[in-house]
Every structure is written in C-alpha cells, then in structure tokens.
Write a structure and sequence with these properties.
4-stranded antiparallel beta sheet; 3 domains; Heat Shock Protein 90; 9 helices; Beta-Lactamase; about 425 residues; alpha+beta; about 15% strand
Length: about 425
C-alpha cells in the first residue's frame, strides 16, 4: 500500500515536516539527558535538607511536643515520619534513570547506609531513612518535582515554530514546483493536439533549461505542423484534380459500359484512399468545440447512409457533448464504413450514458475479430484477419477514430459481441 501522496509538492512538504519532527524529538531527548544530572542533584539536596531539618527538630523538641511537631510537618510540608520496621523493609529498585541518580545523590549526602525508596507500603512518595539513637525512621515526602512537569509553553512554541517552518517550506516548494506543474499541463495539451502557452524560462537553472527546451520543441512542432498543412494542401490539389479529370475523360470517351464502370470504380477507390490519407494527416484540434446532440448527429448519418442503400438501426438515449462536430462525424463515419466493409448487415448504432460518459456503439453482424487483434487494429496501416471479409482498405479508419476519441478525452474500444459481430464503442465525456 502506497501511503505517500501523489504530487511532488505534497511529498516534499511531508519530507520537510518529517525532518523537522525528527529534529525536534532529537533535541528534546538531548535536553532531557543533559537536564537529568542537575535535576537529580536538586531533588536529592532538597530531600537531604528536609531529612536533616526533621531529625534536628525532633532532637531539639521536648518529648511531649514531638507529636505536635510531626502533625505540623505533615500539615504544612506534607512530610511524614514513620518508624522503620526492618522485618517488612522491601525497597524496590528505582523505576527510572532519574530516580536512580536521585537515590545515589541522597546516599552521598546522608551516608551509604541510608535507605531510599520511591514506593513503600503501596504509598507513593520519596522515602528516606534516618536514625535517632538506635531507632530508625522514614521521612516520607511527596514526589513533587521528581518528575519534571510537561513544559507546555515550550511545546506550544515548538509546535508553532514547526508549523511556521512547514508553511514556509510549502510556499517555497510550491513556488519552485509551479513551473513543473505548468510544464505538465502544457505537455498534456500538446498530447491532445492543442497549442500550449509558452513556459517561463526564468528561475533555477534546471527549471529554466526545461522551459527553454520545451518552448523550442513546441515551436519546432508548430513549424512542422504548418509545413505538413502546406504539403497536404498540395497533395490534395495535385492528386485529386487529375483523378477528377481522368474520371471525366473515362465517362466521355469509354463506350463500353462494363469497362467504363470498372474504371470509374478504380478511380473512386483511389480517390477514397487519397481522402483517407488526408484525413489521417489532418489536424482535428484546429476545429473549435461546440455543443452537439449525439442523437441528432447519429440520425442524420443514418439517413445519409440509407440513401446509399446501407440501412442503419438506431437506438438508445440522447446525450450532449462538447466536441468538434466535423472530427466526431469523421470518426463515426469511419466506424460505420468499417462495419459495412469488414463486417456484415445488420448494422446498428446504440447510444447510452454511464459514469458521466456517453457510449456510442456501432454494431455489426460480421464474424468479429481475433482477441489478439482487438488492440492492434487501431494502429495505423494495420488490417485485421481477412476472415472478416476480402475487402481492401488502408487500415487508417480505426486509427483516425481512436485519435479523435483521445483528442476529446475519451477512448475507442473494440469488443466481440456474444451473439456474433463486432462492437466499436466510442466513450466520450458528457458536456
């Protein structure tokens, strides 16, 4: 499971925040280690002073006043004096390095035979023994100061400084990361056939180099596209005009109807091949998108094919798209032509919506395709298994339809139908 965020900005901020947190924890740990020794000496010195004062007060007081003195010590200082019963003495070891250091310091000041406990007879406190004549007593003091209080003020300041540091890091990394975001968006626009804006060529050396290289690539592609458009215009004029003259000459000079019709079909095939090559090389992104009612578009195309003796059944629901009308018409035209040329009747078009997508399916009744060819036939100049039909073509129809689908943020999917035939499905985002 990948718990890291997707964006570079978020990952960098997380890394900086983690380093700051580790740094804070390391400094707190070092502070605790260096602060332990003086705190242990302070606690031990205070405990030794209380024991010495208590012992001196008891020795100086008259025997009949000692009880009142003990009550006063307990009431004002929270100090109790309890006789030591050696048969029941069980001194547990200190529970932390600080308490162990406190016990060592107390013994250093009061003597090695002094007993020090921190939890005796199920009562928490600092227990220190002392002797009066031959009797041993416990001085029980509250454990105030033995465990350092949480420095909330320091914790608050540290958290505030950390938040400000993370915020500053976020602003700084966001500024550095912005050119990468712009480059990513520009590359996506370029992949969709759109013209991206010019990237900023200032900033850190690596970012500036990226901007310069990308802008140069964009200019080179624009120049190549312009040259290609000029070349296509020349090809269209230089090829199709002679074909038109040749057809006119055939119709006027060839008297044999069979030979004339065969020659006209050949000329029409050549003209169709030329048109497909020009369609494949055309840049559809230059057309402005508009609101399109798919049901109306499909119905008009079905009527046009019906006039050519190719009936199409339409079904499904209506949906509206923000798309390029000519490009989408060209894609559907190629899919319908493929259904009649390589498949078999009946040909149908079904429209439905699913997950904010408009699904336009062109269905035929042919033999379908081999599973291994369902993806390959969308590549330029690839024709599927001849088992579907012996018809010839350029292998560009599906490539053009797939490119137009991706230009609109959609996809073209080919699926063999369970009842037989092929489904060519255009998935396009709804308007």
């Amino acid at each position: 499971m990948n718990w890291l965020p997707d964006s570079l900005l978020a990952r960098t901020v997380w890394l900086i925040a983690g380093l700051l947190l580790i740094s804070q924890l390391a400094w707190l740990t070092l502070f605790g280690l260096y602060e332990r020794e003086p705190r242990a000496k302070q606690i031990a010195h205070r405990a030794a002073a209380i024991v010495n004062l208590t012992r001196a007060a008891l020795l100086a007081a008259r025997p009949d006043k000692r009880r009142d003195l003990l009550v006063e010590l307990s009431r004002k200082e929270g100090v109790q004096v309890i006789p030591v019963e050696y048969d029941e003495v069980d001194v547990p070891p200190p529970s932390s390095p600080l308490l162990a250091r406190v016990a060592d310091e107390i013994r250093r000041e009061l003597g090695e035979h002094t007993l020090v406990a921190f939890n005796e007879e199920d009562e928490e406190g600092l227990w220190v023994s002392f002797a009066i004549d031959t009797d041993e007593y416990w001085v029980v003091m509250p454990r105030t100061g033995q465990s350092p209080p949480l420095p909330w003020a320091w914790i608050g300041w540290g958290a505030g400084v950390m938040l400000l540091s993370v915020l500053g890091a976020w602003l700084m990394v966001r500024r550095i990361n912005r050119p990468l975001v712009d480059a990513s968006k520009a590359a996506a626009m370029l992949g969709q056939g759109k013209t991206p804006p010019t990237l900023d060529e200032h900033g850190p050396r690596e970012i500036a180099t990226l901007g310069v290289a990308f802008n140069r690539m964009k200019d080179d592609l624009s120049a190549m596209e312009h040259n290609r458009s000029l070349m296509l215009a020349g090809i269209s004029h230089d090829l199709r005009t002679p074909l038109s003259r040749l057809r006119l000459a055939v119709e006027m000079n060839v008297s044999n109807d069979r030979e004339r019709n065969a020659m006209i079909r050949d000329i029409e095939d050549m003209d169709g091949l030329t048109r497909q090559f020009l369609d494949f090389a055309r840049r559809e992104s230059e057309e402005a998108p508009q609101e399109i009612d798919i049901s109306d578009l499909v119905k008009s195309m079905a009527d046009r094919f019906a006039l050519l003796g190719k009936p199409i059944t339409t079904s499904g629901q209506t949906c509206r798209l923000h798309a390029r009308h000519k490009a989408l018409t060209r894609a559907l035209d190629n899919l319908i032509e493929n259904a009649f040329r390589y498949g078999a009747s009946p040909v149908a078009i079904d429209i439905r919506t699913e997950d904010r997508q408009c699904l336009i399916s062109v269905l035929d009744g042919g033999p379908g395709l081999a599973e291994a060819e369902l993806q390959r036939v969308k590549k330029p100049f690839f024709r599927g298994n001849s088992a579907r039909t012996n018809a010839q073509g350029t292998g560009l129809g599906l490539a053009i339809a797939d490119r137009i689908a991706r230009l609109h943020g959609g996809s073209l999917t080919l699926v063999n139908r369970p009842e037989g035939g092929l489904e060519a499905r255009l998935s396009l985002p709804l308007a």
